[in-house]
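Entry 14. Structure prediction run on the chain below.
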Amino acid sequence: MDNKKLEALCKSIHREPVVQ
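Output returned:
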């Protein structure tokens, strides 16, 4: 997996937390 993609995903989740 791409480290950058994981980082971007992490930042995205932190920016707008997803409520499950």
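The helical segments are 3-15.
Filed with the rest of this week's runs.
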